[in-house]
Amino acid sequence: MLKCRTVWKKLAPLARASSTVCRQNVRRTGLNNSRIPACVPVAHMSTGPAGGGRENQLYVLLVGAACVGGAIYTYRTVKGDNQRYQDRIDEISSRPYKRATEEPATPIQSEPPAVDATETEVIPEPEPEAAPSPEPQAAPSPEEPSPLAPDAAVAAPIETTEPPPADEPVVEASPEPPAAPVVEEEPSPPSEPSPAELTEPPPAPVVESEPAAAESPAEPTEPQPEVVAESGGPAPASLKVPSHTPYLLIGGGTASFAAARSIRARDPGAKVLIVTDEPDPPYMRPPLSKELWFSNDPSVTETLRFKQWNGKERSIYFQPPSFYINAEELDGAENGGVAVLTGKKVVHMDVRGNKIKLDDDTEISYDKCLIATGGVPRNLQVIERAGEEVMKKTTLFRKIEDFKSLDKVSRNIKSITIIGGGFLGSELACALGRRSTEYDLEVVQMFPEKGNMGKVLPEYLSNWTTEKVKSEGVKVISEALVKSVVCKDDKLEIKLKDGRLVKTDHIVAAVGLEPNVDLAKSAGLEVDSDFGGFRVNAELQARSNIWVAGDAACFYDIRLGRRRVEHHDHAVVSGRLAGENMTGANKPYWHQSMFWSDLGPDVGYEAIGIVDSSLPTVGVFAKATAKDTPKAATEKSGTGIRSESETEDTAISPVASLTPAPNVGQHKDEYGKGVIFYLRDKVVVGIILWNVFNRMPIARKIIKDGEEHADLNEVAKLFNIHDD
Q1: Which of 135, 297, 671, 672 has its CA 20 to 30 A from that of 470?
Q2: Cβ atoms < 10 Å from Cβ of 328
Q3: Is 565 in a helix, a strand, or coil?
Q4: CA-closest candidate to residue 620, choices 672, 545, 657, 577
Q5: pLDDT at 630 (0 to 100)
């Protein structure tokens, strides 16, 4: 087009000059013959005097030839430009294919140094033989090599670079064809998750080997891929992490596992990747402060297995290692599966690009993502400012490592102090109080409230609970505000604001949980200023393809308003709902999750809704019988899982003790069993079932109805608390 313009600029003056000369000649001829040019017949123009008509014809022919030549040149130029434009478009459109075939070539060249020397010598020698070599080894997954075979007749390297996920595990474990059956066997357990959790005693040795990094495998087919994964060490880890996953779950807790199970239930072929910074696969946290402390097995810290009240034994892990597939095999898994990437922390999240970055700079893209990062235990500022010596003698209880560490410490010291009077602090105090006699251990619990769980229970019940905790061998110091902590003579001195001084060997800080919202800044997600946590809607959605579940979710409860809950059952419910919505369910959060706690051998309670001691309460109590204990309720139900949502049945109740419950009639006030209603604007918004079990669906319905009740004594009869 530029050339056409240039030619036209050159021809335009010539055409204008020619036309001007023609007009002048015509006018001159007309004047010489005394005729008006407009009246001159056309026939006489060519027969006029010499010098007039011939010049006119010459100029006309010249102008016509120039116009015809310019038109032809313009046509050819435009046609050539169109052809070059089309060629350019074709070249640009072919670039993604060239990049896809060229980029994977570099990992294949850099991969052999990570393999044994004997293998690296075989691969580079015959380059044309690289095409047939992966075909027999990757026969179990023929999806990837088959479409590339006709395209790679000449360019053999393209065929070898196209399926790197299938080649990498084959190169590392080429003489081990059992890797293929692992992929085929994994999808079968997700179809029946509940029986696998409760009735799988055979995987016991496998679970034991899990925390020990699979050092003692039970079968040769399963541990071999795990050994290969570990043998690579941190160096080749970036090569084994899948670069893309349809479902990415950040966090390895209860919410993530519930979401993974829900996704697989609705989409059986789904490929789910769980990324967790812990070294263990998903596990239950409640037994860490409850059942595990009452086990008689000396190796409980290694096996992490415990006996329930009904006599059945189970592990704190939701599933054995055989349930999961290796992360490097996730891309090539025909039937999908769940892979867990342990020991990796997500440090950055690109919401627009749909990808995350790990702490080793590895990037993983996703289609849909769940954030279930949970929370981190809070600490007192006076302890943080006290120095390194004090911090070494302080435990923030949250993970498996914390349980193992505290168990070891409690067996080798003389005194331990628990700061905090909530659920965790009271449970640990009762658990450690049981050891006070056996190990000559002094257990002290201090908190700023007037009684145990003073923020949850009404004052009269909180005081009664405090007496029960004391009966477990715990020295309780109420209304205690810590002013300073110092380390002197290998002892910790805790000075309170009222002047009291407590000396101890170790401190357990159980003062609450802080939601982990580290990804909020990089992801641009909103954090709730009142409750903390990622702010999501009723469908637990923070963005169009991002969901949040568990402790880190500040969600909108359509019945009770905006909330954030830190309990096991909520993690199950919210994780399951998020997984369903990630597969297109679009369901709101309506199910009221429950929580529970156990204090000593004869006190166990379950709660639902908003239970806050600042709300007005109405309690209806009755005398407890031998049937009104956690042990009796568990034996009757036949299972030890406490979470109603986890069993998808009626509420059931486990335990915290191995001894029968004594008679509660020794106390001045009788609170053997009962129901406590929490009211807001005369409507029941929370209920505690005190030593009343298997009645949670009734409590849930009362809260869901949201009606005013003239006589709550009549409502309490629905729970059959007066039946013997």
Answers
A1: 297
A2: 25
A3: coil
A4: 672
A5: 63
Task: Tell me how many degrees the CA angle 119-169-171 measures, rounded to the nearest 5.
Answer: 15
Beta bridge partners of 340: 274
74 residue type, one letter: T
Q: What is the dihedral of CA 155, 160, 164, 170, to 10 degrees?
A: 180
Name the token pair of 500.
């009291």
Task: Determine the pLDDT at residue 625.
Answer: 75
Q: Within 10 A of 628 (CB to CB), how many other CB atoms are there?
A: 23
Burial of residue 386 (CB within 10 Å: 0-12, 13-18, 19+) is buried
Give the Cα-Cα-Cα angle 305, 309, 313 (nearest 5 degrees). Answer: 30
Res. 564: pLDDT tops 90: yes
Give the Å distances, CA to CA, from 316 to 198, 502, 571, 627.
11, 35, 15, 27
pLDDT at 696 over 80: yes
pTM for this entry: 0.64
Sequence-ordered list of residues with C-beta below 8 angstroms from that of 44, at least 6 positions apart, any chain: none
Residue 326 CA, chain-centre distance (Å), reads 17
Residue 478 to residue 300: CA distance in whole angstroms: 33
Q: Which one, of 101, 133, 107, 132, lies nearest residue 119 by Cα?
A: 133
Q: What burial letters (b/e) apply to 65-93, b meaning 16+ CB within 10 Å?
A: ebeeebeeebeebeeeeeeeeeeeeeeee
Question: H/E element holding 503?
Answer: strand 501-504
- Rounded CA separation 369/247 (Å): 6
Polymer length of the chain: 724
Q: Considering only CA atoms, which of 541, 544, 646, 542 is closest in space to residue 589?
A: 541
CB 345 within 8 A of CB 360: no
CB 552 within 8 A of CB 534: yes
377-429 pLDDT, tens digit each: 999 999 999 999 999 999 999 999 999 999 999 999 999 999 999 999 999 99
DSSP category for residue 496? E
Q: Do 287 and 598 contact (CB within 8 A), yes or no?
A: no
The candidate with the shortest Cα–Cα distance to 228, out of 217, 218, 123, 302, is 217
- In 3D, which of 124, 127, 126, 107 has the Cα closest to residue 167? 107
Residue type at 551 in one-letter notation: D
* Contact present, 599 and 664 (Cβ < 8 Å): no
pLDDT band for position 466 (50/70/90)? very high
Q: pLDDT by residue (tens digit) across 120-144?
A: 333 344 343 333 333 334 333 333 3
- Count of alpha carbons within 13 Å of 12, Cβ hemisphere only? 6
Confidence of residue 687 (pLDDT cuts 50, 70, 90): very high
Centroid of chain to Cα 451 = 37
Asked if residues 619 and 464 have their Cβ atoms less than 8 Å apart, the reply is: no
What separation, in Å, do the N-terminal and C-terminal C-alpha atoms of the chain show?
99
What does each C-alpha distance from 116 to 160, 174, 272, 416, 615 come to in angstroms?
A: 19, 11, 31, 52, 68
Structural contact between residues 563 and 554, judged by C-beta atoms closer than 8 angstroms: yes
Give the largest Cα separation in the chain, rounded.
146
3-state secondary structure of 166: helix
265-317 tens-digit pLDDT? 999 999 999 999 999 999 999 999 988 998 888 899 999 998 775 668 899 99
Alpha-carbon distance 356 to 374, whole Å?
A: 18
